[in-house]
Amino acid sequence: MEYSDKILSRSIDPSVHDMLTHAEGLGLETVWDRYEAMLPQCGFGELGLCCRHCNMGPCRISPFDEEGPKQGICGATADIIVARGLIRMIAAGAAAHSDHGRDIAHTLLLTAEGKGGGYEIKDEAKLMALAAEYGLEVDGRSKEDIALDLARAVYGEFGKQEGPIQFTRRAPEKRVALWKNTGIDPRGVDREIVEIMHRTHIGVDNDPVNLILQGLRASVADGWGGSMIATELSDVLFGTPTPVRSEANLGVLKDDEVNIIVHGHEPTLSEMIVAAAQDPEMLALAEKYGAKGIAICGICCTGNEVLMRHGVPIAGNFLQQELAIMTGAVEAMIVDVQCIFPALGALTGCFHTKFISTSPKAKFPGATHIEFHEEQAYDIAKEIVRMGVENYRFRKPGQVHIPADTMACMVGFSVEAIVGALGGTLDPLLGAIKDGAVKGIAGVVGCNNPKVQHDYGHVNILKELIKNDVLVVTTGCNAIAAAKAGLLLPEAAELAGEGLKSVCQALGIPPVLHMGSCVDISRILVACAAIANALGVDISDLPVAGAAPEWMSEKAVSIGAYVVSSGIFTVLGTVPQVLGGPVVTKVLTEDANAVVGAAFAVEPDPFKAAKLMIDHIGEKRATLGI
Ligand code: NFS
Ligand code: SF4
Predict the structure, then answer these.
(1) Which atom of ligand 2 is nearest the CA belonging to 73?
(2) 267 CB within 6 A, ligand 1
(3) Is the sign of the CA dihedral 177, 180, 184, 190 positive or negative?
(4) pLDDT at 1 over 80
(5) What is the mean pLDDT of the chain?
(6) For the segment 124-151, what is each residue's pLDDT rounded down to a tens digit?
(7) Is 406 helix (H, G, I), strand (E, B) or coil?
(8) Which residues pair with 259 in a beta bridge?
(9) Nearest to 601 by CA among 570, 576, 565, 568
(10) For labelling, which of 165, 207, 330, 508 has a CA lying 20 to 30 Å from the CA of 295?
(11) Distance 191 CA to ligand 2 centre (A)
(12) Phi, psi at residue 214, to the nearest 5°?
């Protein structure tokens, strides 16, 4: 099949070329068309130079127009406006991750009280380890009693006033001391987010550096707080991931089965949908309507959650959500929160697909709302699955267009699973890093963004890093891109440098390790802390680097901020809306080094970005004397 240059320029993924051509034929628009219609995007916004924080505004500052205003009506300078805008993005991102963590804590609480509608405590070892970390009494007590105390203690982290947030103390001592000395040790998850909103109100904090420090404090409360809580308690409830094989890309949709897609973020819903789809009653119903079975697959991070824990196939990443519906083969698109296009409502209206929203926090135009409550989780999940199954008979076989593309993958690399693959300790990895077989570790994460060619940055940065013997850990939509490109297979070690290849082959692991959803970037933090502690250094001393080649969300801004606050150099592939503030830009890309031992770089070219990371890793190796 020949594709137009326009379509080829939008993605490197053949399934996307196929579906965009199909969309053109059907006269349907996608995120790429809406992006093009938006061009040129507002120059003030691109530079972060507009403010609507009060009704004297809106105000905007032109860096190009000599005659134009250089301050807002209140007197806010470019840097003040940019810094306030940036940390409001961090607040929103940290809030999203942390509210997700809070919901998981709530589910654990209900489960411990015997009110969780079908949930159970799957990983007792992790429950005990967390109980010990929180200093809870465990002797002679049931796991439910312990879980209840744990859930209450963790719940408390959100509303704490004076800190510390327990999991922040997993960081090396030097890092914790640095956070305390620089005033970025968070006191409570909600408190830091609220304080951002306060400080960015008109006429409060008008010092760009002071604003950024508060942004970093809230981000640490996300990474080492809300996100880590989400990960750890999800493991307790749903099991800690272990290596499992699966498949990725739109070709996982079945032409003779009921296809149900879970899209969004919180595993509380997707776990139950996966369970309900195996219910004999549902399978019998599917058979009655002539389907060979019920195929669940995922999109975005809730897809990553069930991929990691159950090997549920993943249909695609962020920019593929509309394309999945355009296959005409999706009976139900079930969503909860985050990264869900409001455009899905109108689009599903063109097909037989049922668009089902489930969270009281997230309603969508054109969606059927079936509210999900943990207390009746299984029953509601079954009702939703039933809607999908009953919708199978309305599928129009003549309109079904499923791309052939699928790729096998091996996923499930929690820290525990990595340590397991290494034979029970980190020593073999530390040895490989010390002797140079593995030069270092890169965390590559984040979204897609129609501003750049879909998956081009993701896949090329990964290939370049492994070619240079850098072991990669991945999460989020990068992990899905990696899966589709075949980089999550042990065989992909062939693409790695000699050193990394031999290590991967000896252990039977891929050179790119899928560690989970975006909240699971907390797993990467835990791994870095363990390595730093084993070497007796701070995280900022390690030969590690981070990248978000195609990021777009406010969550990604919070992630970037906590990764840098943890001491890890991070390269952004799309340009953040801060360049209008020279002081802010310099703080983020240079001065942060002196404060937190790491900084950001912006580099859209994935080959150059990989080079920056590899050079950084080389410098850290030299300083460590390895
Ligand atoms: Ni992360 Fe996941 Fe994807 Fe970006 Fe959205 S799904 S939480 S935010 S787009 S990686
Ligand atoms: Fe304008 Fe200041 Fe109000 Fe922002 S806070 S809209 S810069 S007057």
Answers:
(1) 8
(2) no
(3) positive
(4) no
(5) 98
(6) 999 999 999 999 999 999 999 999 999 9
(7) coil
(8) 295
(9) 570
(10) 508
(11) 24
(12) -65, -35
